[in-house]
Amino acid sequence: MKxxxxxxxLNELYRQRKELVKAPPIDVLKSEGKGVxxxxxxxxxxxxxxxxxxxxxxxxxxxHFAAPKVQPPVIDGTAxxxxxxxxxxxxxxxxxxxxxxxxxxxxxxxxxxxxxMPNGTEKxxxxxxxxxxxxxxxxxxIPEVAKPNVQQLIPLLKVLPEYPKSVARKxxxxxxxxxxxxxxxxxxxxxxxxxxxxxxxxxxxxxKALSQWRYPKNESSQGRLEVLFDFTVS
Amino acid sequence: MKLxxxxxxxxxxxxxxxxxxxxxxxxxxxxxxxxLVQLFNQPLFHYLLTLTDAxxxxxxxxxxxxxxxKMDTPQTSDIVVKSWLFKVARNSxxxxxxxxxxxxxxxxxxxxxxxxxxxxxxxxxxxxxxxxWALSKLSFAQKEAFIFQQEGFSLMEIxxxxxxxxxxxxxxxxxxxxxLKRLMS
Lengths: 234, 185
Description:
The structure holds two protein chains of two kinds.
Chain A: H1 2-20, H2 27-34, H3 40-66, H4 89-92, H5 120-138, H6 165-170, E1 174-182, E2 188-196, H7 200-211, E3 225-231
Antiparallel strand pairs in A: 1-2, 1-3
Chain B: H1 2-11, H2 17-27, H3 30-51, H4 54-70, H5 81-99, H6 105-109, H7 127-137, H8 140-150, H9 155-162, H10 166-184
Helix pairs in contact in B: 2-3, 3-4, 4-5, 5-9, 7-10, 8-10
GO molecular function (chain B): DNA binding; sigma factor activity
Keywords (chain B): DNA-binding, Sigma factor, Transcription, Transcription regulation
Family (chain B): Belongs to the sigma-70 factor family. ECF subfamily.
Protein backbone atom coordinates (compact mmCIF):
# COMPACT_ATOMS: atom_id res chain seq x y z
CA MET A 1 0.00 0.00 0.00
CA LYS A 2 2.71 2.35 0.97
CA UNK A 3 4.62 1.44 -2.16
CA UNK A 4 1.61 2.20 -4.30
CA UNK A 5 1.17 5.59 -2.71
CA UNK A 6 4.80 6.37 -3.28
CA UNK A 7 4.44 5.35 -6.93
CA UNK A 8 1.55 7.74 -7.34
CA UNK A 9 3.51 10.47 -5.67
CA LEU A 10 6.43 9.79 -7.99
CA ASN A 11 4.14 10.01 -11.03
CA GLU A 12 2.72 13.27 -9.83
CA LEU A 13 6.13 14.72 -9.04
CA TYR A 14 7.47 13.56 -12.36
CA ARG A 15 4.57 15.24 -14.17
CA GLN A 16 5.14 18.49 -12.27
CA ARG A 17 8.86 18.35 -12.96
CA LYS A 18 8.27 17.78 -16.61
CA GLU A 19 5.88 20.69 -16.85
CA LEU A 20 8.47 23.00 -15.39
CA VAL A 21 10.97 22.11 -18.08
CA LYS A 22 10.81 24.40 -21.06
CA ALA A 23 12.08 22.89 -24.27
CA PRO A 24 14.07 25.21 -26.48
CA PRO A 25 12.77 26.08 -29.96
CA ILE A 26 14.13 23.85 -32.67
CA ASP A 27 16.51 25.56 -35.08
CA VAL A 28 16.01 22.87 -37.66
CA LEU A 29 12.43 23.94 -38.26
CA LYS A 30 13.33 27.61 -38.44
CA SER A 31 16.12 27.24 -40.93
CA GLU A 32 15.13 24.19 -42.92
CA GLY A 33 11.40 24.33 -42.46
CA LYS A 34 10.84 27.47 -44.44
CA GLY A 35 12.98 26.38 -47.34
CA VAL A 36 11.32 24.30 -49.96
CA UNK A 37 12.47 20.73 -49.81
CA UNK A 38 13.33 19.49 -53.27
CA UNK A 39 13.26 15.71 -53.65
CA UNK A 40 16.30 14.09 -55.14
CA UNK A 41 14.57 12.86 -58.28
CA UNK A 42 13.27 16.37 -58.99
CA UNK A 43 16.76 17.79 -58.67
CA UNK A 44 17.96 15.16 -61.11
CA UNK A 45 15.13 15.90 -63.52
CA UNK A 46 15.79 19.65 -63.43
CA UNK A 47 19.50 19.08 -63.89
CA UNK A 48 19.03 16.81 -66.88
CA UNK A 49 16.46 19.16 -68.36
CA UNK A 50 18.89 22.05 -68.15
CA UNK A 51 21.59 19.87 -69.62
CA UNK A 52 19.37 18.89 -72.50
CA UNK A 53 18.35 22.47 -73.22
CA UNK A 54 21.94 23.66 -73.06
CA UNK A 55 23.29 20.98 -75.37
CA UNK A 56 20.41 21.52 -77.77
CA UNK A 57 21.18 25.22 -77.84
CA UNK A 58 24.85 24.65 -78.49
CA UNK A 59 24.15 22.18 -81.28
CA UNK A 60 21.54 24.49 -82.79
CA UNK A 61 24.07 27.32 -82.85
CA UNK A 62 26.69 25.09 -84.42
CA UNK A 63 24.35 23.90 -87.15
CA HIS A 64 23.13 27.44 -87.73
CA PHE A 65 26.60 28.75 -88.38
CA ALA A 66 27.97 25.68 -90.10
CA ALA A 67 25.23 24.97 -92.62
CA PRO A 68 25.54 26.64 -96.04
CA LYS A 69 22.76 28.94 -97.04
CA VAL A 70 20.32 27.20 -99.31
CA GLN A 71 18.77 29.38 -101.94
CA PRO A 72 15.46 28.29 -103.30
CA PRO A 73 15.58 27.40 -106.96
CA VAL A 74 14.22 30.09 -109.22
CA ILE A 75 13.11 28.68 -112.49
CA ASP A 76 11.43 31.43 -114.43
CA GLY A 77 13.22 34.35 -112.90
CA THR A 78 16.24 35.74 -114.60
CA ALA A 79 18.38 35.68 -111.57
CA UNK A 80 19.86 32.35 -110.77
CA UNK A 81 20.95 29.33 -112.62
CA UNK A 82 21.24 26.34 -110.44
CA UNK A 83 24.42 24.39 -110.39
CA UNK A 84 23.56 21.04 -111.83
CA UNK A 85 25.09 17.82 -110.82
CA UNK A 86 25.97 15.54 -113.64
CA UNK A 87 25.65 11.84 -113.32
CA UNK A 88 27.79 10.53 -116.09
CA UNK A 89 30.55 12.01 -118.18
CA UNK A 90 28.32 11.77 -121.22
CA UNK A 91 26.24 14.64 -119.97
CA UNK A 92 29.19 16.54 -118.79
CA UNK A 93 30.57 17.46 -122.13
CA UNK A 94 29.14 20.71 -123.37
CA UNK A 95 27.85 20.68 -126.90
CA UNK A 96 29.96 23.00 -128.94
CA UNK A 97 29.04 23.84 -132.42
CA UNK A 98 31.74 24.94 -134.68
CA UNK A 99 30.63 27.46 -137.20
CA UNK A 100 33.84 27.56 -139.19
CA UNK A 101 36.49 25.11 -140.02
CA UNK A 102 39.72 25.50 -138.22
CA UNK A 103 42.46 27.25 -140.15
CA UNK A 104 44.55 24.95 -142.14
CA UNK A 105 47.91 24.58 -140.61
CA UNK A 106 50.76 25.67 -142.74
CA UNK A 107 53.06 22.95 -143.50
CA UNK A 108 56.61 23.99 -143.39
CA UNK A 109 58.86 21.68 -145.17
CA UNK A 110 62.16 21.56 -143.62
CA UNK A 111 65.02 20.57 -145.82
CA UNK A 112 65.87 17.07 -145.04
CA UNK A 113 69.28 16.81 -143.75
CA UNK A 114 71.24 14.63 -145.94
CA UNK A 115 73.28 12.27 -144.10
CA UNK A 116 75.64 9.77 -145.20
CA MET A 117 73.14 7.17 -146.11
CA PRO A 118 73.58 4.33 -148.44
CA ASN A 119 70.51 5.25 -150.61
CA GLY A 120 70.79 9.01 -150.40
CA THR A 121 69.63 9.84 -153.93
CA GLU A 122 66.35 8.00 -153.63
CA LYS A 123 65.41 9.81 -150.43
CA UNK A 124 65.93 13.21 -151.87
CA UNK A 125 63.72 12.32 -154.74
CA UNK A 126 60.95 11.24 -152.42
CA UNK A 127 61.15 14.49 -150.57
CA UNK A 128 60.68 16.44 -153.71
CA UNK A 129 57.51 14.53 -154.46
CA UNK A 130 56.19 15.33 -151.04
CA UNK A 131 56.88 19.01 -151.48
CA UNK A 132 54.98 18.97 -154.70
CA UNK A 133 52.00 17.38 -153.05
CA UNK A 134 51.96 19.95 -150.31
CA UNK A 135 51.86 22.76 -152.74
CA UNK A 136 48.75 21.19 -154.22
CA UNK A 137 47.10 21.11 -150.82
CA UNK A 138 47.86 24.72 -150.11
CA UNK A 139 46.16 25.78 -153.27
CA UNK A 140 43.06 23.77 -152.52
CA UNK A 141 39.88 25.81 -152.41
CA ILE A 142 37.64 24.91 -149.57
CA PRO A 143 33.96 25.22 -150.35
CA GLU A 144 31.81 27.23 -148.06
CA VAL A 145 30.24 25.01 -145.51
CA ALA A 146 26.67 25.79 -144.67
CA LYS A 147 26.19 26.68 -141.03
CA PRO A 148 24.41 23.88 -139.24
CA ASN A 149 21.06 24.90 -138.00
CA VAL A 150 21.42 23.55 -134.49
CA GLN A 151 19.78 25.17 -131.59
CA GLN A 152 21.70 25.41 -128.45
CA LEU A 153 19.18 24.79 -125.75
CA ILE A 154 20.55 24.70 -122.28
CA PRO A 155 18.18 23.49 -119.64
CA LEU A 156 17.67 25.73 -116.64
CA LEU A 157 17.10 22.80 -114.37
CA LYS A 158 18.46 19.34 -114.74
CA VAL A 159 17.18 16.61 -112.53
CA LEU A 160 19.18 13.46 -112.18
CA PRO A 161 17.33 10.19 -112.21
CA GLU A 162 17.15 8.33 -108.98
CA TYR A 163 18.93 5.06 -109.07
CA PRO A 164 16.24 2.56 -108.03
CA LYS A 165 17.30 0.77 -104.88
CA SER A 166 16.35 -2.65 -106.11
CA VAL A 167 18.51 -2.15 -109.18
CA ALA A 168 21.36 -0.73 -107.19
CA ARG A 169 21.27 -3.76 -104.94
CA LYS A 170 21.69 -5.99 -107.96
CA UNK A 171 24.49 -3.73 -109.11
CA UNK A 172 22.96 -3.75 -112.56
CA UNK A 173 23.95 -1.00 -114.92
CA UNK A 174 22.27 0.23 -118.04
CA UNK A 175 22.06 2.90 -120.65
CA UNK A 176 18.91 4.80 -121.54
CA UNK A 177 18.74 7.13 -124.48
CA UNK A 178 15.71 9.35 -124.61
CA UNK A 179 14.47 11.78 -127.19
CA UNK A 180 12.15 14.62 -126.29
CA UNK A 181 10.75 17.97 -127.29
CA UNK A 182 10.51 21.23 -125.45
CA UNK A 183 7.31 23.25 -125.57
CA UNK A 184 6.84 27.00 -125.26
CA UNK A 185 6.57 26.83 -121.51
CA UNK A 186 9.99 25.26 -121.30
CA UNK A 187 8.62 21.90 -120.29
CA UNK A 188 9.80 18.59 -121.62
CA UNK A 189 7.19 16.73 -123.62
CA UNK A 190 6.89 13.70 -125.84
CA UNK A 191 9.58 11.67 -124.21
CA UNK A 192 10.43 8.61 -126.21
CA UNK A 193 12.78 5.84 -125.41
CA UNK A 194 15.20 5.48 -128.25
CA UNK A 195 17.44 2.93 -126.79
CA UNK A 196 17.37 1.12 -123.50
CA UNK A 197 19.61 -1.45 -122.04
CA UNK A 198 19.25 -3.08 -118.70
CA UNK A 199 16.44 -2.86 -116.24
CA UNK A 200 13.05 -1.45 -117.02
CA UNK A 201 13.15 0.50 -113.79
CA UNK A 202 16.08 2.47 -115.12
CA UNK A 203 14.00 3.56 -118.08
CA UNK A 204 11.27 4.75 -115.73
CA UNK A 205 13.68 6.64 -113.55
CA UNK A 206 15.24 8.31 -116.56
CA UNK A 207 11.86 9.35 -117.93
CA LYS A 208 10.75 10.64 -114.60
CA ALA A 209 13.87 12.70 -114.18
CA LEU A 210 13.74 14.06 -117.67
CA SER A 211 10.14 15.15 -117.30
CA GLN A 212 11.28 17.48 -114.51
CA TRP A 213 13.79 19.29 -116.63
CA ARG A 214 13.06 22.92 -117.39
CA TYR A 215 14.17 25.04 -120.27
CA PRO A 216 13.90 28.79 -120.68
CA LYS A 217 10.49 29.96 -121.77
CA ASN A 218 9.65 30.69 -125.37
CA GLU A 219 12.47 28.54 -126.59
CA SER A 220 10.71 25.50 -127.83
CA SER A 221 12.80 23.03 -129.68
CA GLN A 222 12.54 22.78 -133.43
CA GLY A 223 13.21 19.12 -133.59
CA ARG A 224 13.72 16.39 -131.11
CA LEU A 225 16.48 16.50 -128.58
CA GLU A 226 18.26 13.55 -127.16
CA VAL A 227 19.80 12.74 -123.89
CA LEU A 228 21.71 9.71 -122.71
CA PHE A 229 21.57 8.44 -119.21
CA ASP A 230 24.30 6.06 -118.30
CA PHE A 231 23.61 4.09 -115.15
CA THR A 232 26.71 2.53 -113.79
CA VAL A 233 27.44 1.17 -110.39
CA SER A 234 30.92 1.54 -109.14
CA MET B 1 3.19 -5.92 -27.93
CA LYS B 2 3.12 -4.67 -31.50
CA LEU B 3 -0.47 -5.41 -32.28
CA UNK B 4 -2.12 -2.86 -29.95
CA UNK B 5 0.02 -0.05 -31.30
CA UNK B 6 -0.85 -1.08 -34.82
CA UNK B 7 -4.56 -1.09 -34.01
CA UNK B 8 -4.14 2.29 -32.37
CA UNK B 9 -2.47 3.53 -35.52
CA UNK B 10 -5.32 2.23 -37.65
CA UNK B 11 -7.96 3.83 -35.48
CA UNK B 12 -6.51 7.29 -35.44
CA UNK B 13 -4.52 7.61 -38.63
CA UNK B 14 -5.18 11.31 -38.87
CA UNK B 15 -3.09 12.48 -35.97
CA UNK B 16 -1.08 9.52 -34.75
CA UNK B 17 2.67 10.04 -34.56
CA UNK B 18 3.19 7.00 -36.78
CA UNK B 19 1.02 8.56 -39.46
CA UNK B 20 2.87 11.87 -39.21
CA UNK B 21 6.19 10.07 -39.28
CA UNK B 22 5.32 8.06 -42.39
CA UNK B 23 3.89 11.13 -44.09
CA UNK B 24 6.99 13.12 -43.34
CA UNK B 25 9.33 10.56 -44.83
CA UNK B 26 7.11 10.07 -47.84
CA UNK B 27 6.58 13.73 -48.65
CA UNK B 28 9.38 15.46 -46.70
CA UNK B 29 7.03 18.29 -45.91
CA UNK B 30 8.19 20.30 -42.91
CA UNK B 31 4.73 20.63 -41.39
CA UNK B 32 4.68 16.94 -40.51
CA UNK B 33 8.02 17.26 -38.81
CA UNK B 34 6.73 20.34 -37.01
CA UNK B 35 3.82 18.29 -35.66
CA LEU B 36 6.19 15.61 -34.46
CA VAL B 37 8.35 18.24 -32.79
CA GLN B 38 5.32 19.66 -31.08
CA LEU B 39 4.40 16.22 -29.77
CA PHE B 40 7.79 14.98 -28.61
CA ASN B 41 10.10 17.93 -28.11
CA GLN B 42 9.12 18.42 -24.49
CA PRO B 43 9.54 14.80 -23.25
CA LEU B 44 12.75 14.37 -25.22
CA PHE B 45 14.24 17.53 -23.84
CA HIS B 46 13.19 16.59 -20.35
CA TYR B 47 14.88 13.23 -20.76
CA LEU B 48 18.10 14.84 -21.99
CA LEU B 49 18.03 17.53 -19.32
CA THR B 50 17.69 14.95 -16.59
CA LEU B 51 20.65 12.96 -17.85
CA THR B 52 22.99 15.84 -18.55
CA ASP B 53 23.38 19.58 -18.06
CA ALA B 54 21.24 22.21 -19.75
CA UNK B 55 23.64 23.35 -22.48
CA UNK B 56 24.46 19.81 -23.58
CA UNK B 57 20.78 18.95 -23.55
CA UNK B 58 20.02 21.92 -25.77
CA UNK B 59 22.75 20.90 -28.19
CA UNK B 60 21.60 17.32 -28.28
CA UNK B 61 17.94 18.13 -28.81
CA UNK B 62 18.87 20.17 -31.89
CA UNK B 63 21.04 17.31 -33.11
CA UNK B 64 18.18 14.86 -32.64
CA UNK B 65 15.74 16.78 -34.79
CA UNK B 66 18.41 17.49 -37.38
CA UNK B 67 19.10 13.78 -37.56
CA UNK B 68 15.42 13.07 -37.98
CA UNK B 69 15.21 15.63 -40.75
CA LYS B 70 18.26 14.49 -42.65
CA MET B 71 17.68 10.77 -42.22
CA ASP B 72 17.15 8.70 -45.33
CA THR B 73 13.68 7.30 -45.64
CA PRO B 74 13.60 4.30 -43.29
CA GLN B 75 12.83 0.95 -44.85
CA THR B 76 10.54 -0.31 -42.12
CA SER B 77 7.31 1.49 -41.52
CA ASP B 78 5.95 -0.42 -38.51
CA ILE B 79 7.67 1.31 -35.65
CA VAL B 80 6.54 3.09 -32.54
CA VAL B 81 7.62 6.64 -33.20
CA LYS B 82 7.98 7.59 -29.57
CA SER B 83 10.43 4.82 -28.73
CA TRP B 84 12.20 5.39 -32.04
CA LEU B 85 12.67 9.06 -31.20
CA PHE B 86 13.89 8.24 -27.71
CA LYS B 87 16.36 5.82 -29.18
CA VAL B 88 17.64 8.49 -31.56
CA ALA B 89 17.88 10.91 -28.65
CA ARG B 90 19.70 8.38 -26.48
CA ASN B 91 22.23 7.58 -29.21
CA SER B 92 22.79 11.26 -29.89
CA UNK B 93 23.29 11.92 -26.20
CA UNK B 94 25.81 9.11 -25.82
CA UNK B 95 27.65 10.31 -28.92
CA UNK B 96 27.78 13.82 -27.52
CA UNK B 97 28.98 12.65 -24.12
CA UNK B 98 31.65 10.51 -25.75
CA UNK B 99 32.75 13.50 -27.73
CA UNK B 100 33.03 15.50 -24.53
CA UNK B 101 34.90 12.60 -22.88
CA UNK B 102 32.32 12.53 -20.21
CA UNK B 103 31.07 9.12 -20.97
CA UNK B 104 32.04 6.39 -18.62
CA UNK B 105 30.84 3.02 -19.68
CA UNK B 106 30.89 1.50 -16.25
CA UNK B 107 28.53 4.22 -15.12
CA UNK B 108 25.91 2.72 -17.34
CA UNK B 109 26.73 -0.77 -16.20
CA UNK B 110 26.62 -0.29 -12.45
CA UNK B 111 23.10 -0.69 -11.38
CA UNK B 112 23.34 -2.93 -8.37
CA UNK B 113 25.51 -0.62 -6.33
CA UNK B 114 23.38 1.00 -3.75
CA UNK B 115 23.52 4.69 -3.58
CA UNK B 116 25.06 6.02 -0.44
CA UNK B 117 23.08 8.59 1.36
CA UNK B 118 25.05 11.80 1.00
CA UNK B 119 26.45 13.28 4.15
CA UNK B 120 25.01 16.71 3.72
CA UNK B 121 21.37 16.75 4.58
CA UNK B 122 19.29 18.69 2.19
CA UNK B 123 16.28 20.39 3.55
CA UNK B 124 13.63 21.21 1.00
CA UNK B 125 10.42 22.96 1.67
CA UNK B 126 8.48 21.09 -0.96
CA UNK B 127 8.42 17.54 -2.20
CA UNK B 128 9.18 18.55 -5.77
CA UNK B 129 12.49 20.09 -4.81
CA UNK B 130 13.34 17.01 -2.88
CA UNK B 131 12.33 14.80 -5.78
CA UNK B 132 14.47 16.79 -8.21
CA TRP B 133 17.43 16.60 -5.94
CA ALA B 134 16.97 12.87 -5.34
CA LEU B 135 16.61 12.20 -9.07
CA SER B 136 19.82 14.05 -9.79
CA LYS B 137 21.61 11.81 -7.34
CA LEU B 138 20.72 8.62 -9.21
CA SER B 139 23.15 6.95 -11.59
CA PHE B 140 22.82 7.46 -15.34
CA ALA B 141 21.31 4.02 -15.94
CA GLN B 142 18.83 4.26 -13.11
CA LYS B 143 17.74 7.77 -14.10
CA GLU B 144 17.27 6.65 -17.66
CA ALA B 145 15.29 3.57 -16.77
CA PHE B 146 13.12 5.55 -14.37
CA ILE B 147 12.37 8.25 -16.96
CA PHE B 148 11.50 5.73 -19.63
CA GLN B 149 9.14 4.02 -17.26
CA GLN B 150 7.51 7.31 -16.30
CA GLU B 151 7.16 8.19 -19.99
CA GLY B 152 4.90 5.20 -20.30
CA PHE B 153 7.17 2.72 -22.02
CA SER B 154 6.74 -0.92 -21.14
CA LEU B 155 9.68 -2.91 -19.84
CA MET B 156 10.14 -4.59 -23.20
CA GLU B 157 10.23 -1.25 -24.97
CA ILE B 158 12.82 0.06 -22.53
CA UNK B 159 14.87 -3.06 -23.21
CA UNK B 160 14.68 -2.32 -26.92
CA UNK B 161 15.67 1.33 -26.54
CA UNK B 162 18.61 0.69 -24.21
CA UNK B 163 19.75 -2.66 -25.64
CA UNK B 164 19.68 -4.26 -22.25
CA UNK B 165 18.15 -7.45 -20.92
CA UNK B 166 14.75 -7.55 -19.35
CA UNK B 167 16.09 -8.42 -15.89
CA UNK B 168 18.63 -5.60 -15.98
CA UNK B 169 15.98 -3.03 -16.72
CA UNK B 170 13.66 -4.45 -14.14
CA UNK B 171 16.27 -4.28 -11.40
CA UNK B 172 17.39 -0.80 -12.50
CA UNK B 173 13.89 0.53 -12.07
CA UNK B 174 13.51 -1.20 -8.77
CA UNK B 175 16.77 0.27 -7.49
CA UNK B 176 15.92 3.69 -8.83
CA UNK B 177 12.66 3.74 -6.97
CA UNK B 178 14.21 2.39 -3.83
CA UNK B 179 16.92 5.04 -3.94
CA LEU B 180 14.40 7.80 -4.57
CA LYS B 181 12.33 6.64 -1.69
CA ARG B 182 15.31 6.56 0.58
CA LEU B 183 16.56 9.97 -0.48
CA MET B 184 13.19 11.59 -0.20
CA SER B 185 12.25 10.21 3.15
